[in-house]
Amino acid sequence: MVYDVVVIGGGPAGCTAALYAKRSGLKTLLIEKGIIGGYIVNARSLENYPGFSSISGMDFGSKLSEQLKGFDVELMPDEVVQLSLKGEIKEVSTREKKIQTKTVILASGTEHRKLGIKGEAEFIGRGVSFCATCDAPFYRDRKVAVIGGGNSAVDEALTLSEMASTVYLIHRRDMLRAEQVRCEQLAEKGVKILYDTELTQIKGDKMVDSVMLVNNKTKQKSELDVDGVFIAVGYVPSTLIAQEAGVNLNGTGYVIVDESQKTNVDGVYAAGDVTGGVLQVATAVGEGAIAGVSVFNYLRKPYWSRL
């Protein structure tokens, strides 16, 4: 069997691309190694997407999944490990099988950025986490630190404030990058913000019990007792497999696309966070829609298409 299009990644961009392709009559397969919705399912609330005054990330992901099933989009819970993109028929290799397709839409998103400090890798799963939605219940009535200053970090801190006894938000700059409405909620929840401060080491025996800090301005070092560390310092693109297959990336590792979401490889498109645009659900959905339409135009060449 040869698919018309294989979409790699089940976040907002990938789901939208698959819906547009399927509704256009293309034989479509969506491959997602995790949960449909991607990282958005971990969001405390989504308040800046048209049509919803507020919706939890988990509920938004569930609606995406229901919509895919409603349009009979074929889903494969698997991980892509290799791509062969040369020629008219391309090959997508997962851990379970090899799949042939005429086109590919890369919507593999991003991965959590690591700090690269002593103790980080050692204590993952033993006090170091990248997901408050997943792990907050383990820190009920305990002290935790969240590292970062953007929307994701603030959301992590707000989620943890519902269960932890004390939440510290540690940011290396003198002001947060998060939306003002989110920042105002921090004060309401009693989150303690440490500005101009960087994490230099995570310490503990079997589990995390403290972190080492340094103030960027005063250079003063200190040790803070905490039971957990939640790292939310951004993301890096999941593009290694694409790069190995010949897809061009920019200087920061994101896939380069044109206005139709096409990459440098014929028949290969990309959408969402993997392209390095503004990391917002609305942007991802928009790029996914363009990619889905572009694949249809590429394959069917309708008279109204300029491609």
What is the C-alpha radius of gyration, as a whole number of Å? 21 Å
What letter string, H or E per element, gives the SSE order? EHEHEEEEEEHEHEHEEEEEEHEH
Could you tell me the number of beta strands?
A: 17
Q: What integer is the average pLDDT? A: 93
Through-space gap between termini: 26 Å
Structural class: alpha/beta
Note the beta-strand portion.
Answer: 25-35%
Number of DSSP helical runs = 7
What coarse outline follows from CA principal-axis ratios? elongated
Amount of helix: 10-25%
Q: Report the biggest beta sheet as strand number plus sense, adding barrel if it closes.
A: 7 strands, mixed
Residue ranges: pLDDT <50 for 5 or more in a row?
none
Question: Summary?
Answer:
The chain has 307 residues and is an alpha/beta fold. Helices cover 25% and strands 27% of the residues.
Question: How would you describe this structure to a colleague?
Answer:
Helices cover 25% and strands 27% of the residues. It is of the alpha/beta class.
List keywords for this structure.
307 residues, alpha/beta, 7-stranded mixed sheet, 5-stranded parallel sheet, elongated
Topology diagram in text:
Elements: E1 2-8, H1 12-23, E2 28-31, H2 57-70, E3 74-76, E4 80-84, E5 90-94, E6 98-106, E7 110-112, E8 128-129, H3 132-135, E9 143-147, H4 151-161, E10 166-170, H5 180-189, E11 192-194, E12 197-204, E13 208-215, E14 221-225, E15 228-231, E16 235-237, H6 240-244, E17 268-270, H7 281-300
Parallel strand pairs: 1-2, 1-6, 2-3, 6-17, 8-15, 9-10, 9-15, 10-11
Antiparallel strand pairs: 4-5, 5-6, 7-16, 12-13, 13-14
Helix pairs in contact: 1-2, 1-7, 4-5
